[in-house]
Structure formats: structure tokens, C-alpha cells
Amino acid sequence: MPPAAEMIGSFRFSTGCLPVSERATAVRELRERGILPVEPLPDRALRVQITKWSLPGAGILSGRLCGLRQEGTRQAAADDLFLGLNLAGRSTALQRQREIMIDHGDAVFLSCAEGPFTITRPTPVRFIGLRVPRRTLAPLVAGLDGPVMRVIPSETDGLKLLAKYIGALVDSQALVSTEVSRLVAAHLRDLIALSVGATRDGVVAAQARGVRAAWLEAIKRDITANLEDCALTVAAVAARHRVTPRYVHKLFESEGVTFTQFILRQRLDEAYRMLRDPRFAARSISSIAYDVGFGDISYFNRAFRQRYKVTPSDTRNCAEL
User: Fold this and answer.
1) At 37, which helix (H) or strand (E)?
2) CA 45 → CA 41, 42, 91, 176, 238, distances in Å?
3) pLDDT along the chain (321 residues), means of 10
4) Can you say whether residue 98 is alpha, beta or left, with left for phi > 0 and alpha for psi between -120 and 50 degrees?
5) What is residue 156's predicted lDDT score, i.e. its pLDDT?
6) What pLDDT is attached to residue 23?
7) What is the DSSP string of 232-296?
8) What confidence score (pLDDT) does residue 3 get?
9) Are the CB atoms for 275 and 285 separated by under 8 Å?
10) Alpha-carbon span 294 to 161, nearest angstrom
11) In a 3-state reduction of DSSP, which class is residue 55?
12) 34/28 Cα distance (integer angstroms)
């Protein structure tokens, strides 16, 4: 059995299905179970929708919070550094009598070794919270020995990339893999370093690892969300992300696949799922092909047979048996 630090786990919770009268009790139970140290605020609407990931060398908490105070204790993880990013909404962080406002798009960066801290969210906030051990971030960032609590402005490039990367990963089933989870934790450290001030060597390392991974995940997510667009070209995708087409090509080449091959596989996989789904039984095969971005039905049939060794019709017929 791996040591506790290497354990991978996830937890999801929402007050959405609970009566308003039961939400405060349910939220306090999260604290009692050691899952989330929060306390409801009096006379405030209480809402919680969170996903929590524990990875080897990193912790991720993301979701929506409203009407509560989140606490961090020195005893819980004295070596940890914490970065809390507000994707939307405003909150207040307090540590050692110092209070700072975290506005929309901003983040707070602090050290748990400096003592207990609280983040108060009286109104709705969509957020990402990250914890990493100081010893893993110290080689990438200078000046972590003293007090570090500060605001990271929303326009910080590393922070923007971090938000994109987390957005693409929090729902990914790939995080159940220990090997991939370790790699994700390393990418997170790279992007945190860029956000808070990486050393020259840290910047070089982050560009080769975390930055590349963040762009690739963001572009993959863009592609899968726009498969129906027949004009989904590398130029169009690059323009949306403000990078060059050559950079997009290089990102995919690092995985041994071309941009065009990735799009083709995603479209074929989506068509395959739809053909086997009873909810789409009334839809014609050509209609499904068009819906996933194919403009040429003959090409769709050839590509489908080449990938799955069966025809689209046979795939649908087998699903109906």
C-alpha cells in the first residue's frame, strides 16, 4: 500500500439538493470529517458545490462557495503553500491581522507556516484553491523563506494559464492514474511558480513542462467543444488562444499526433458514441456525421471503417441488438 502522501482521491459535494434548513448542518459535517474546514456565516445564503482532489504533492479544491468562512490551520500542513484564485466573485483573506481583498480574477498566495488564515466568502464565488509543499516549490521560486502573503493580479500570465489548466483537468478521469497525477502536480507547481515569481531557471523549467501542458489541455478542450465546426482549423484555434499555428502543431507533435489526427479521432469517437446511444436511434447516420463536423459522408465512412474495423451501420445495428 502506498504511503498516505502518495494516495490519490477525489470528493464531490453540493448543497444543491438539500433543503435550505439542512445546509448548515451538512457543511459543518464536512469540517468534522476533516474534508473542508468551513463555517457558515450568519444571515447569509449558504451554497457549496466543490470538487476536491488529493494528488501526490498537490491538493486541488474547486467549485462555488457562498455564505461561509474557509479556514486553514498551521497544524494541518505547516509546510504547505496555498494559492486561492477567484474565477468569479470577491472574497477576503486574513492572516496574522493582515486583511486583503481578492477580486474577480485575482488570487491570494500565502504560507500556512505563517499561522492560521481565513478566507471569507459572503457572496457567490467561483474559485480554485491549491496547496503544494513548500519544499517542492522552493527550487522554482525565490523569497519563500519570509512572509509571502500577497495578491496575484488577474492579468498575470501564469495565473491565466493555471486557470485554463485546472479547468481542463478537474473533471478528467486521467487523474485516477498515479503516474499522470504526479505529472499534473508537477505542472501545477510550474504554473504556480510563474504566477508568484519564478526564478530564471524556474521559468525555463515551467516553459518546458507546465506551460506546454496547460496550453495543450486548453486547446484540446477548445477542440472537443467545437467539433461540429467544419472550419475548425489550426489557424482558427491558434487565433482564439493567441498563439501561433506552429506552436499548436508543436504541442501535438510532443504527443506523437498531429493537430488534424487529433480532431479526426475526436470526431470519430463522438460519432461512435452517438451511434451506440439509444437516444440518437432516430437520427440518420449522415446527420450524426454532420453534427460532429464531417462535411463529406464518403470520407466519414472510410475513416470510420479504418478506425473501428466496422461500418457506421454495423455499429448502430450491434447497439440495437
Assistant:
1) none
2) 8, 9, 15, 34, 42
3) 50 92 93 89 93 88 94 68 95 94 95 91 95 92 82 93 82 64 88 92 87 88 90 91 91 92 95 92 93 93 94 84 52
4) beta
5) 94
6) 94
7) --HHHHHHHHTS-HHHHHHHHHTTT--HHHHHHHHHHHHHHHHHH-GGGTTS-HHHHHHHTT-S-
8) 38
9) yes
10) 31
11) strand
12) 10
Distance CA 172, CA 170 (A): 6
Helix or strand or coil: residue 220?
Answer: helix
Question: What is the C-alpha to C-alpha distance for residues 250 and 244, in angstroms, rounded to an integer?
Answer: 10
What are the Cα distances from residue 313, in Å, to 35, 285, 294, 296, 317? 49, 8, 16, 16, 6
Q: Look-up: residue for cell 467543444?
A: 225
CA-based Rg of the chain, rounded to a whole angstrom?
23
Q: What is the pTM of this model?
A: 0.79
Question: What is the model's pLDDT at position 174?
Answer: 56
List domains and CATH numbers for the chain: 4-154+170-209 (2.60.120.10), 226-321 (1.10.10.60)
Dig out the grid coordinates for 103 from the structure: 477580486
> What are the phi and psi torsion angles at 67 (to 5°)?
75, 35
Q: What is the pLDDT of residue 276?
A: 92
Cα-Cα end-to-end distance for the chain: 43
**Largest Cα span, the chain:** 69
CA 168, CA 215: separation in Å to the nearest integer? Answer: 10
The Cα–Cα gap between 255 and 258 comes to 8
161: Cα separation from own chain's centroid = 10
Please, where are the H alpha helices in 176-209?
178-196, 200-208
Query: Which ranges constitute the DSSP H helices of the chain?
Result: 20-32, 134-137, 157-169, 178-196, 200-208, 210-225, 234-241, 245-253, 259-276, 285-291, 297-308, 312-320
Residue 272 Cα distances to 48, 124, 130, 289, 302, angstroms: 36, 39, 37, 10, 14
Residue 106 to residue 85: CA distance in whole angstroms: 6
